[in-house]
From TrEMBL:
The protein, known as: Polygalacturonase
Protein species of origin: Sesamum calycinum
Domain of life of the source: Eukaryota
InterPro entries: GH28_Enzymes, Pectin_lyas_fold, Pectin_lyase_fold/virulence
PANTHER family: PECTIN LYASE-LIKE SUPERFAMILY PROTEIN (PTHR31339:SF4), PECTIN LYASE-RELATED (PTHR31339)
Length: 113
């Protein structure tokens, strides 16, 4: 995702693990998705109400999330990013992202995304 301008979006960036529902009783509880290499750059969100929400899956975390030049305004200073079971890199992100994304773009693939 890149080059996006948002206004009055309640939650500007959200990754969710889903609704925890399954089509029938035969679902495979060990079949977990592999989410890796998500790139988000040049994003501006104005008049946002909630901080980003990034919820990976216990046992199958969302990995190598790359965020560059992301600006979210309108949030109360006390509002913090909500991250769980995610990891990645960030550079030029405001407000400061969660600890899990503070590796500051040191990955070579993130530098070019």
């Amino acid at each position: 995702m890149r080059n996006i301008m948002m206004e009055r979006v309640k939650v500007p960036i959200r990754f969710s693990r889903g609704a925890d529902d399954h089509p029938d009783e035969q679902w495979d509880s060990k079949a977990l998705p592999k989410v890796k290499g998500i790139s988000i750059s040049n994003v501006i969100s104005v008049d946002s109400r909630k901080a980003p929400l990034l919820q990976g899956i216990d046992g199958a975390p969302f990995e190598d999330i790359c965020m560059k030049n992301v600006s979210i305004s309108g949030l109360s200073p006390s509002v913090k990013w909500n991250c769980e079971f995610v990891s990645g890199f960030s550079d030029g992100v405001s407000p400061v992202p969660c600890f899990e994304l503070q590796k500051n773009g040191s990955s070579s693939w993130c530098a070019y995304s």
